[in-house]
Design brief:
Rossmann fold; single chain; about 15% strand; 10 helices
Amino acid sequence: MGSECCQVLQIITKQHYPNYSIMELNLRGKVVVISGAAGIRGSIGETILRALAKEGALPAIIDRNDRGFEYQKELQEQGVDALFAQADVTDHDQIKSAVERIIEKYGRIDVVINNVGVNDGAGLDNTYEAFVNSLKLNLISYFCVVKYALPELIKSKGNILNIGSKVAYTGQGGTSGYAASKGGVLALTREWAVDLIKHHIRVNAIIVAESWTPAYDNWLKTLENGEEKLQSIVSKIPFEQRMTTPEELADTALFLISDRSSHTTGQHIHVDGGYVHLDRALLTSKEQ
């Protein structure tokens, strides 16, 4: 849509709906810390990262994967003042150093998106150490990023978005560490929403169910009946019987961290085609 068309649309809107304004996320120039954004291309974190850049935000990646340097370079070549602060998020000292580096560069933090999530299969048959390491990666890292970013969030009256999982609601089997972590993420979302009201800081979570990502595709390829398993999963998603795309998750993420979601806090937002909550009676007996 050209600039002239946009101007005409704004005039018409103002005439007929004087109290309505064109949707503007107002993310340009906002410093957004996003953990776990150096994943494979097409992963949820990487997709949110690209969406932030398109909106003119200044994304600061915290991740241990060297891929982050590649993403930083690409974004900078596109004119985006992005930063990759490499850190092993199971190490709180490294997280602290990464956050300090971000503050040193930008002088502020407006948003934190906690996106780390590895369904590592640390179940009851695994070791104590494996369980604790899962908590460090999938839960304690969320606490640490927010803890060290909080002074700047208080100054900016910013907000926090946690990326969660349906496993916290439904269980999965064989993944105690991940399930406990994601349950903790939901609890922290509500706890922080209460705790930080006095600072005008909003805190929300997106709950991911079945989303088509490279990691999901790679997992299916490890199964003998991968295609059959995929069809079985897709058939149980009530809305349109398809997986959620990372782009749909990114769109919701950007809305939740934006000014357009200014009175939304303490919420668990399910972007899942009704997978967790809708009645399975919506499906035919064959699909069930």
